[in-house]
Amino acid sequence: MVLSKVVLIGASGTLGTEILRALTADTAFEVTLLARPDSKACFPEHVRVLRPEQTHDNLVQAFIGQDAIICTTSIAAIPQQRQLINAAIAAGVRRFILNEFANPLTYGGLPDLQHARVAKLEVLRYAREQAAEYSSFSWTGLATGHFLDYAMLRIPAFGFNMPLRKARIVDNGLEAFSATTVPDIAVAVIGVLKHPEETASKSLVIRSTEATQMEILKAFEAQTGVKWEREDVRAVDLLASGREKMQKGERGGMLDFVVAQLLEKGSGRAEGHWEDNANVLLGVKQRSANEIVREVLASLGSEE
């Protein structure tokens, strides 16, 4: 049975906006948005929006009659999921989709990034405890890896500056990594809601592609018809830069760590998590780097 009555939290963000688009395009779902009372975000007129003071009692009232809650709030708000889970249980909500998007939380990875995962790990542990105590409650996490299209469009530090036709290649650019596009994450969320039994209280892994920086660079050059300017950097230098920025309180340190974790030659940090991926179950199609690049360029009206 489809989890049809859904509350989406964080609908104004990059991921939340795409999930809202997917939900409202599917007649199987009745969508309610939960926003802060002081939120200035604008939403489609046909979608129900609640802006309560977020006390336990108010949240319970907002959640009564709902089948599922999808949380796509900011990183800073991740600890607040405990409060949301408590209200969901009190209201009889059957499923809570955690804000667990990114690498699997059980993934060791780079030591410098572990503190950033602490809050998510604590929420995951709490969700497991509550599901064990309350048989009517379950949770789902989606490990998506790198948000590939978003990084291509918005974060040149990940390696590709499309307006300037420049690439920054880490080590030799041959380290494979797995990644998912934002629209494909929305597809997976819909898949979770349509397969409640198979996805109950599980962390599921999805991907749109597995690629290297060099494969992506070749795809960009082929489809733009331009030889891109290439800058080579070392992951070890990114790590040193990240630590220095963090010590000085400067911005960008965490991004240096993330890029190094994803692309460092021979680290294996971005591989080995995909053997049991849930692509087929959730309806996510795996594509080549060339196809992803074509989609991204087309979204800009820049395909040549």
Automatic annotation (TrEMBL):
Keywords for the protein's UniProt record, in alphabetical order: NADP, Oxidoreductase
rRNA-binding keyword on record: no
Domain of life: Eukaryota
GO molecular function: oxidoreductase activity
Domain NmrA-like: start-end pairs: 4-238
Entry keyword annotation includes Oxidoreductase: yes
The name this protein goes by in its record: NmrA-like domain-containing protein
